[in-house]
Amino acid sequence: MTAICQLFESQAGESAARSGQSGQGFTARYDRSMRSGLVIAIALAACSSTPQTSHTRFVTVGSDAVATALAVSAQDGQLAQVFATTDDAAILAIEEHELEALSHAMHEAHGRCGGFMLHETRIDAELALLPPDAQATPDYTLRRPAIVGALLPQIEATRIQGTIAELSAMKNRYYRSESGAAASAWLAKKWASFTDRSDVTIELFDQGYPQKSVIMTIPGLTDEVVVIGGHLDSIALGGMSSNAPGADDDASGIATLTEVARVVLASELRPVRTLKFIAYAAEEIGLRGSLAIVKEFKKRRVNVVGVLQLDMTNFQGSDRDIWIIDDHTSRAQNAFLVKLIETYLPDTTWGSDRCGYACSDHAAWHAAGIPASMPFEARSRDMNRHIHSAKDTLEQSGHNAQHAAKFARLATAYAVELAQLDVAPPLVCGYALPRDTGRDVDTSILSILGLLGLVGIGWVLTSRLAPALTRQP
Ligand code: BES
Ligand code: ZN
C-alpha cells in the first residue's frame, strides 16, 4: 500500500527561529513493553530507505507506536533516540530522510494517517507532551530584555543564604506555634525595610491561625495581578514543639522571592500589572493558606493572570538545574518559563517533572483556573530526603544559596516580563505621564504630544497675550 498520509507539523512559533537548538528535557525511559513491540514492528516495516544526507528531526508518536518508529530508523543502522515517554506519547529524534518511511510504517502497522507529529525543535516536542490547560492566558511575548539584563546581575546568592539562615534558625515555623507567628512578623518587617514608598503595602492575612500569610503589593496601572509566592511554614514530627528548620522546605523559596522583591524595590521600576509577593501560612497542613487567599481573591474579583510558586529551590539533587512541574500547572505559562530560561539564563539547564499530586500552593491557584507554575530544585526522584525533619538545614545545600539564585533570576525575569516592570513615568508638573500598558495605541506618545501642545499654547499665551493685556493704555 502506498502511504498517502501527510506529515503533521506542530506550530513552530517562536521556537522555530531557534531551530536546531536541542534544549534540555526529559530522559529516556525505554521500557520492556516497547521492546517486544519492536520485534513485531521490525517485521512490519515496509519501506527501505537509502541513507542520504539528512538532519535530525523531533517527532512525537503514540507510546504504542514507539517500536514502529524505532524499527524504521533501524533499517539504515541509526536507531532513533527516545527522549521522553508519558502514558500516551513519546519523543523520538529521527533522521529527516526517514520521515517518509515512518509515515508509511505508521500507516501499515497502526492504520494511522501520519501517526506522528513533526516538531521544529526538541523543546516544541516536549511542550507538546505537556498536559493541556483550560485557562485563558496572557500574551507571553518577551519585551523587556534590557530591564531583565539590568536586574539579573543584582541578585546576590549570599543574601538568599542569609535569609535562609535566619528563617531556619527559628525553632520551627509551624502554623500554630509562637515561632511560626513570629516568622510572619519577622518577614513583614524585612520586606518593609526594602522601601519607604507609600504605595507599596504589606498585609498580614489572617485566617484564624497564629501564623499569618504575608502579602506585599506593588501596585500597577491595570487591574491585572501577578503573584510570586512560597510557603512560610515548616513542619516536622512533634508539631508545635518540633525542631523544624525547614531550610529547604521552604525557607529557600521565601528567601528566593525576598531577594527578587529587594532587587525590584531597589530599582526605580514600576509594574504595569500589580505585583504581589505572598508568603503563605499553613501550606504543610493541606495548602490552607493559599486556599484561603485564592478564595478571598475570587470573592474580591482580583484578576490574577499568573502565579509562580517557589517551594524548595536550594538543593541541587539532579544533573539539571530547574525542573518545571508539569502537573497542576499551566502548560502555557510553563512554556513561558522555558522561554525565560532559554533567553535570559543561558547557563541554566532545565527539565520537566511532576509531583503526581497537588504538592504545593500552585495547585490551589491552578484548581481555580489561574495559570500557575512551579519550578523545582531537583527531579522528584532525586529530592532532598531531609525535608520535614530536624535535618532540613542549609548544611544539606553546601551552606550556600547558589542553586536558589538561579530561581531568583528566573523569578525576576518572570516579574519583569509578566508584571511589565518599566522605568517610572516622568513627573511633569507633579503628574506622572501615562505609560505604555501594552495596548494598541501608545498612550505615552499621545500624552507627550498632548503635553507639547499644552506647552505651545502656554507659550503663546504668556509671550503674546500677556504683554498686550498688561500694557498700559
Ligand atoms: N515542598 C513540599 C512539596 C514537595 C516535596 C514537592 C518534595 C516536591 C518534592 C511541600 O511543602 C509539601 O510537603 N507538600 C505536602 C503536600 C501538601 C498538600 C500538604 C507533601 O508533599 O506531602
Ligand atoms: Zn513540605
Task: Please tell me about this protein's structure.
The protein is an alpha/beta fold. It has helices at 32-44, 66-74, 99-110, 122-129, 145-151, 157-169, 178-192, 247-266, 288-299, 331-344, 362-367, 402-418, 443-470; strands at 8-9, 56-62, 81-85, 89-95, 116-119, 201-205, 213-218, 224-231, 269-271, 274-280, 303-309, 322-325, 350-353, 372-373, 375-376, 421-423, 427-428, 431-432. It has three domains: 8-129, no CATH class; 145-423, Zn peptidases (Aminopeptidase, 3-Layer(aba) Sandwich); 427-467. The strands form five sheets. The chain has a six-stranded mixed beta sheet with strand order 6-7-10-8-11-14, with helices on both faces. Strands 1-5-2-4-3 form a five-stranded mixed beta sheet, with helices on both faces. The structure holds ligand BES and zinc ion. Residues 249-250, 283-284, 286-287, 311-312, 355, 358-360, 376, 380, 383 line the site of ligand BES. Zinc ion binds at residues 249, 284, 387-388.
Question: Could you give a short description of this structure?
Answer:
Helix content is 37%, strand content 17%. The chain has 13 helices and 18 strands. The chain has helices spanning 32-44, 66-74, 99-110, 122-129, 145-151, 157-169, 178-192, 247-266, 288-299, 331-344, 362-367, 402-418, 443-470; strands at residues 8-9, 56-62, 81-85, 89-95, 116-119, 201-205, 213-218, 224-231, 269-271, 274-280, 303-309, 322-325, 350-353, 372-373, 375-376, 421-423, 427-428, 431-432.
